[in-house]
């Protein structure tokens, strides 16, 4: 049985459809990624699944409970890492964890014995009594993750968990999420980092305009939607080259600014052509999840 099942979810604001017919089922122990450009409807979908927003239509089951009717019971076994840190600046590190436990009916005497484990998981040993203002951005993000584990949840929902972090902090968060997955926790995350989704997720759903437009394992989506190789060419005269040779030698070619993205089954002919153009530089690489995302949702800027 799926730990989270949503069937034909609908939600509109002011006559504008934000979520349109979304259906998905997430298995226990799975890491599931929900991807999409800004305004695609990802956060609203998660709020619907948690019972924080009333749907206009559809059915939701979370942890065996009907949502939103039984949302409170369903959320008792859920941890949430919000998009923006909302730690209480008036409390210390440990006080933030102790107070958060009360939202789940856990008194300090129940939470306090778990503090060393939670702080160790977050890499915050020795910082229990530190004021929140003294923590770096990476420390705050790791504390927010530890806080989501106070109630030892079966399901953890993470809304852009590594946005704004430096590479070292991102890799540490990834390691911690893999540890949680190894314990059988169900992870549901949204992210704008395609490499993050490709590394962590068993399955991915791509959302745009309030609809799910693709679902599957990362590698399967890459094989299904894009050519296996990509040659990125840039430099003075790249548009002339793209018009004269690149389009003919590519299975598909897209221009983005001063870069030609050439999608192909075999990049040898493209590389040979570019080698004859000393003014141009190029990168040849395997196709990745970002190529899928851009093909499905477009390259135009979203606000």
Features:
6-stranded mixed sheet; Alpha-Beta Plaits; 35% helix; 14 strands; 4-stranded antiparallel sheet; alpha/beta; globular; 303 residues; 12 helices
| End-to-end separation | 37 Å
What is the structural class? alpha/beta
Main-sheet strand order equals: 6-7-8-3-9-10
Major beta sheet summary:
6 strands, mixed
**Unreliable segments (pLDDT under 50, ≥5 consecutive)?**
none
CATH class of the domain at 227-286: Alpha Beta
Average pLDDT works out at 94
Shape: globular
Q: Order of SSEs, N→C?
A: EEEHEEHEHHHHEHEHEEHEHEEHEH
Q: Tally the beta strands.
A: 14
What does the radius of gyration come to? Answer: 22 Å
Please indicate the percent range of residues in DSSP E strands (runs of 2 or more): 25-35%
Please state the second-level CATH architecture of the domain at 227-286: 2-Layer Sandwich
CATH topology heading of the domain at 227-286 = Alpha-Beta Plaits
């Amino acid at each position: 049985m799926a730990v989270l099942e949503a069937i034909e979810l609908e939600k509109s604001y002011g006559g504008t459809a934000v979520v349109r017919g979304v259906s998905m089922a997430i298995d226990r122990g799975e890491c599931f990624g929900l991807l999409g450009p800004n305004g695609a409807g990802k956060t609203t979908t998660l709020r619907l699944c948690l019972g924080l927003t009333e749907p206009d239509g559809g059915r939701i089951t979370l942890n065996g409970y009907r949502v939103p009717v039984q949302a409170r019971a369903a959320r008792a076994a859920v941890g949430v890492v919000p998009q923006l840190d909302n730690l209480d600046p008036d409390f210390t590190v440990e006080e933030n964890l102790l107070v958060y436990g009360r939202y789940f009916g856990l008194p300090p005497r129940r939470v306090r014995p778990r503090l060393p484990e939670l702080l160790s998981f977050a890499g915050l040993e020795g910082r229990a009594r530190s004021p929140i203002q003294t923590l770096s951005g990476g420390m705050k993000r790791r504390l927010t993750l530890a806080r989501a584990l106070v109630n030892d949840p079966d399901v953890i929902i993470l809304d852009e968990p590594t946005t704004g972090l430096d590479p070292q902090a991102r890799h540490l968060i990834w390691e911690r999420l893999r540890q949680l997955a190894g314990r059988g926790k169900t992870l549901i995350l949204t992210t704008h980092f395609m490499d993050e989704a490709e590394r962590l997720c068993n399955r991915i759903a791509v959302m745009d305009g309030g609809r799910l437009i693709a679902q599957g394992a990362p590698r399967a989506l890459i094989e299904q939607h894009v050519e296996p190789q990509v040659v990125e060419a840039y430099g003075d005269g790249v548009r002339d080259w793209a018009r004269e040779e690149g389009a003919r030698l590519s299975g598909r070619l897209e221009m983005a600014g001063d870069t030609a993205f050439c999608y192909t089954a075999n990049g040898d002919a493209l590389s040979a052509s570019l080698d004859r153009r000393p003014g141009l530089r190029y990168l040849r690489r395997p196709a990745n999840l970002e190529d899928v995302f851009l093909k499905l949702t477009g390259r135009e800027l979203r606000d």
